[in-house]
Amino acid sequence: MGEVRARGGGPLLLGVRHHGPGSARAVRAVLDVARPRVVLIEGPPEADGLIPLAADEDMRPPVALLAHAVDEPGRSSFWPFAEFSPEWVALRWALAHGVPARFIDLPAAHSLVRGSEEDADAEPGEPTSPPEEEPLRGDPLAALAEAAGYDDAERWWEDVVEHRGTGGDVFAPFTVLEEAMGALREAYGTGGRDRDLVREAYMRLQLRAAQKEFGDDGVVVVCGAWHVPALRQKRTVAADRALLKGLPKVRTDMTWVPWTNRRLARAGGYGAGIDSPGWYGHLFGAPDRPVERWLTKVAGLLREEDRIVSSAHVIEAVRLAETLAVMRGRPLPGLTETTDAVRAVMCDGSDVPLSLVRDRLVVGDVLGEVPESAPAVPLQRDLTRLQRRLRLKPEALERELELDLRKENDAERSRLLHRLRLLGVAWGEPTTSRGSTGTFRETWRLRWEPELSVRVAEAGVWGTTVLAATTAKAEADAVTAGSLADITGLAERCLLAELPDALPVVMRVLADRAALDADVGHLAQALPALVRSLRYGDVRATDTRALAEVAAGLAERVFVGLPPACAALDAEAAQETRRHVDAVHGAVGLLGDTVPGQQAARDDGLRPRWHSVLHVLSVRDTVPGVLRGRAVRLLLDDGALAQDEAARLMGLVLSPGTAPADAAAWIEGFVGGGSGGGMLLVHDERLLGLVDAWLTGVPGDAFTDVLPLLRRTFSAYEPGVRRTLGELVRRGPGRRPSAPAGGAGIPGFADELDIDRADAVLPVLRLLLGLDDDRDSTRGDHADGENADRENAEQERTDDNDLVGVGR
Prior knowledge:
- It is built from 37 helices and ten strands.
- It holds the Pfam family DUF5682.
- This is DUF5682 family protein.
- Residues 115-138, 773-808 are annotated as: Disordered.
């Protein structure tokens, strides 16, 4: 059996690369030959009771062992296993042959107690960020690859291990790897991994105990190749126990959780993050001709994306990959060669479809599964039950979910996702809907990450069900909220999540905090979220009357306190207050429309009161120009200010007696902020003329001061609006251009309708409006018909002119 067994007999030590398919095949071959009486595996011994679950038919890798501190679930670690992981293969072999299997690494109770904050973020076996002068702290195989003349450890490993068959001496790979690791450890010691000394001491103690129970020749150890020389080392029991004496520990729980290929691709899980888990899974599962089978998979994926890929492409790609391997001196084509062949033959040299191949195949969107009998916190069990009932299966692939809240199942899905967000389990993120923007629709972007299992375990301290846990956490968050806006935001989330028991507590805290908070900025920040919450009563059948009373009270306090708060503000504070004014204006507009019975209050009370506040702001000299201009604009938009009066106020502020900087700020408030101010100037050339006349009269020494403000204002307009304003200014506001000879006037500014330009948009308008387009879309085709078709052509012209009017 070579050097894998100690001279004079002893346990078999199989040094592997974690998540290496070549190592997995070699381990299975050795186990089939050696037939041990016990299999010892690098891993946390607390998981020994979970080993039988690996044989469950519902257990599908990738999966991971999750250990977390009972009193602090956020302190956790994972031990991932893929189908091609040597440890997983050893577990499955032991279960299939009725052989005991045990984990022998340092217990999680010790490994979860970190000596530094840096170690707290690392997974067991995962090295921390190393200094550049210590290359072995990253991956010992990188040093071997460099010694062999490779600049890529992945390529070296493929050449010497992955591309080897299982024929011949099955022990040879482990013998060679042990010798190489022994040389590395003689040269570099622990390679900066001092914690490994403690782990290896514990593993030696467990190995000795197994030898006493099963005999020297009945034990096989499957562990990282780096540890094999240390396990072979002759150390006394007393010395090993001395290293372990006094180690701190915490009370832990452990279970199986689903894992993903994407998470395997990160540098974690025994410190052996791999770039290509999908490729490695293919190498492990392909019975023969792996390159041909891989390129066939790639061709199938590209065909699904409507790319033209034939069998001839596959044949040519195989030939090219084999040729590249020969030219590069490799025994077989690897991932590099197959990728180059796919790019050249199937992707026409483009990296765009190649990125799809990498995402879907080289990495993959595989999400493992664990059986229901696996231990789990009660909250996880309730979540699993809800996911199954609502047909909302966790998936590793990101997807969008459209919900119609008028449907009961979709409404329950929405409530679940909102409750999980309140618990800090960000399975779904709300996004902008591409369809209706009504409050009865929601769009979510879903992706299940393995770390969410930890978040669920953390949230388990709040309750045993999703509803109970979310209610308890919302009540606690209300009490500890830092600002009034935080509480109103929490009230909004409670309505979205439908937490009837938590909402009264949140409302009581909100009322108490609002009564004590005299800061108008805080009140203005809190009001919009509160008013948005009122809209949910219609769709979600939630009683929001108490919320409406609090919102109306906040609005009244904002009305009273806003004018004094706007006096003597600097430029930065004025911009912040302007955002508050915009938010309050939108909230007042919604407040009367959201709750039945509030329309009269809006028409007879809140809306007029708000308009009176804006009138005060618009004429008070102590208010910054940006706020005065904004108040005039909001009044104009609401029809509470005549255009003549708005023009008069603009004329006053743009008079020579006003400082240029203050006038520029007024203009920014009036037509800036991306609120349609550009179109206002386009359609009201009188206002544009006032701005133009003021700007041309600004003294040269003051022009450089106002230029940044004006540039910020006008740069926010869309390109078409800026172009139109430029044309209007060029010809002079208020003057119509005269058509030059030949009828070639300025495009878009002729006195009459430009029929040819209007005809160009008719096909698009017909498509948008869903009109019958059986007839030809161009007027010329009708004019070429017989006399009997002239009436139809004339009718067509009339309809098209109507469409042009709609488009304008």
